[in-house]
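Suppose a classmate hands you a notebook page containing two proteins, each written out with its sequence and a corresponding row of structure tokens. How would you begin to make sense of it? This section walks through that situation. The first entry is reproduced here exactly as it would appear on such a page.
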Amino acid sequence: MIKKFELLTNDFVEPLDCYSGNMHRIRALVDIPAHGVRAGDLGGFLWDEGNLSHEGQAWVGGNARVAGNVSGDALVSGQAWVGPWVLVLERAQIRDWAILEAIGWVGGDARVGDHAILTDVIVVRDRAHVGGRVRLSGGDAGRATVVGGEAHLTGDLHLNGSLQLIGTGTALAAA
């Protein structure tokens, strides 16, 4: 397996909230065409090398911070935060100022962005989009909140509980 990035020991930040240890910026060692990354480009920050797979075209860019796991062809970018119990996989994108402080995963072609905050037990899948200032608080470990299909959540929504939002609908709340 060819390494696609390296951790820079002299470029680091502290993780968010109560997590300890530094997060180190990454530098691409190979081109990653799916995300326009060229060898030598700087990326975001990882807690350790295991947070980003060397396989596939997954990437962490901008000033994003990842303590979870990113794999497949997924992208985490902007100022996004991915907590340690979150998997970002397949072709999913986490961007902008999104915060995922949940237990769960984002996969398929799902997108989470803008100022969305996802907490508790969450699954975002298929072609679902969560954006705006949506606050999505999931259920307990036995009952996750699932957003799937082509569901589109945006605006100033706050959804709480064990919800199943799957289909082609749009939930929009005015600011």
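The notebook's second entry, a different protein, reads as follows.
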Amino acid sequence: MTARPNIWRWRRCGWIRPFPQDGSGDKVAHEVHQSIQRALSEIRALSRGLAAPDIEALDLEDAIVLAASDRSVPGTHAPELSISGDVTPALSYAEKLCVFRFVQEALSNAARHAKGAKCTVTCASSPDELSVTVADDGPGFDPSDAIKLGTEGGQGLLGLRDRVESTGGRFEIKTAPGAGTTIKMTLFHRQARPR
């Protein structure tokens, strides 16, 4: 036997209210519908972001372009991309995924915390290292607050740093209140890794 909700009791307690009969209910229903549609759009975008694309088949430039386009947020400027050097360095899948997620997360942070700021993504590859830099001209922040768990539960810059360092790379942040933010990752090619 399944328990059935006691609608009468819920209504008496104020948990359920009757639908307004003065015509305002249509407006409320429309607002609720719009809120649900926005929430569904956000959930779908998050779900797409959780699945890693097939970056194994992509070269470095295509992976960066995909990551940057994936994080283009309506109402924000599309990031400027600059890629120099060898775009086909010998990267492991983990390193290529690290670059992809680094660009995604750094641009996502810029969209969240530096709304309307101009962003640039710069990638430079040399025989010894690969560096990827994401910079914005937003409000910046106090760097001593940079590597902490977010109050909303996100890992943000802490997660970025851990991801880069887990591949043997170096993670750097340059920022100050009113001075924009530059986040840089450097991966060292296997023969050039610092000891």
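A careful reader of the second entry would note: The mean pLDDT is 79.
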